[in-house]
Amino acid sequence: MASSDASTDMFAPPINRAMKVLDRSFFQKTIPTSAARIFNSKDISRCRKELTASRETLQNSRLDPVRPDTDQERAQKGGKCLLLRPEVVHNDRTTWSPKLRDLEQDGTLGVIPFQLNLDYDYFSYSEITSAIIPAPEKKSDDEIPQGFALAGHVAHLNLRERYWPYKHLIATVLADKNPMVKTVINKLDNVGTENAFRTFQYEVLYGEDNMDVELREQGCIFKFDFAKVYWNTRLHTEHERLCILFKEGEAVCDVMAGVGPFAVPGGKKKCFVWANDLNPESYKSLVDNIRINKVGDFVRSWNMDGGDFIKKASADLLKSEHQVAIYPKTKFSRSAPENVRKPEPIKTLVQPRIFAHYVMNLPASAITFLPSFIGLYSSSNPHLPSNISIDEIKQLVTKQGLPMVHAHCFSTKSDDNVAETKEICEEISRQLGYEITPETPEVHIYDVRDVAPKKRMFCATFRLPEEVAFREI
User: Fold this and answer.
1) What is its main location (predicted)?
2) pTM to 2 decimal places
3) Integer Cα distance of 195 and 191 in angstroms
4) Is residue 102 part of an annotated ligand binding site?
């Protein structure tokens, strides 16, 4: 942005509300200003420092104040000048600061007129779209769309109806101003309501209809078809927040794992992750991402219903035996590869028999899966191994503790979230048949993000109550 001393309008792009196809050449603007001609190139750094201190130079993060001299002969010899803010008039010394006058009087510089030319490349996405799209008629109307979600090379818009006539203009400018964007799409329906797998119908507004994306998160590579699986880049901080809770050697049950944003980083941390997703395409990508990130020793994958998986995985873990030897990193010698011996393991991680965490990242319905935890370690769970008694399981629980459950959900939106926290706890209590309150130890209702003007995403974390886990049905 231009400095506060300069008029904002002076650096704004020209306006054309009738533009239907983007004309980049239209966005040309010349700003009459002044420049300090530096007679000796050795003085450029000093002059820039002193004139910046006196607030004389043009302060604009998108413009380099050091320019070739306007005189071609001087410029060919390396002559430079410093852009000054528009309020400094070259032939009106009353607009000059004392410092600028001193530098001019001692022959260090001269003040000359300068025509500053701006073009399409200078103006931002926000400035261009504001110049071609009519402003909202009422304050209550939607603002001109600025944000978008990015998944690899695909930019994902969710345009309100009033912007549909300008959607191709918006997409083209967005791609121009974001070099990593090759495809721009617009969502046509609501995720989680029209499709159980949280996928959505879309239209391509710019570029090819190529939805095979690759991106990085938490030091991991994720590849998937964005049209066939669920991915939300805005949840990266939530992915990181929960993964920080996982400790090396713990067992984690990722019930609705998607393509692996919790499972794969968990495997990188040397956690034993059992990951599941009902969507066959998500499962396929999950398997590929486990392989790509080389976490197959720690992460296993399933493709089944989440409720069934909770009971089956918990029972199977009791009888599953698995361990991973951890070796020190060694340097490979190309000149003498035969001399590189396999080192002794530093330690061996043994897979626990009880999960430390259950992650349920399906906010539209995760809480409705909580009844699957009722009787998890009782004889009413048909998957429990017959050779392990309930008393033995209770001994394991006494030693390790019952797992923490992290269930994502939606609720309303208020300033303090007090009512929402209470309502979420009441719904958890109803699903479990056991009272959970905001005051219950180890209960935390975390505010994840806003998803709509009156809708917010939360993560309800609580320790699975013993009365629920061992309840006979």
Assistant:
1) mitochondrion
2) 0.85
3) 7
4) no
